[in-house]
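I am writing to request your help with a piece of structural work I have in hand. Here, with my thanks, is the record as I have it:
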Amino acid sequence: MGFGHARGATLQPVNAIAHMFAGSRALMTTGFQPAITGGALVLHFLSTIIWGVLLAYIAAPLTGWARAIAPVSVGIVAYVVDRFIAPNGLRPGFEQLLSSGETTFIYVVLAAALAAGLWASSRMVPRD
């Protein structure tokens, strides 16, 4: 939301995610609209969960450095898929409103969040 705030349209990059079901209206929505903003957040969380499940599958057999770099690798794959492979209708949409540096930063944050989740899950004691 900070990138949108810098442009005077706090929620516009988040709302852009909703272009998958709301079309170009989502790209132009700058403020809170329950259907647009809510739907965008649901799509964003679902996408993050999918990348997290992929990371869990990849990281399960790994140890050491391989396990440590797995979240970065998944973040890079997410960036490449979202920016270059996915058809326009399945891309996040915020990349149309943000600079390349800002978009890259979002995927760095994704990789950091995946790393934090992986670290936290490895610290959990299994219950029997």
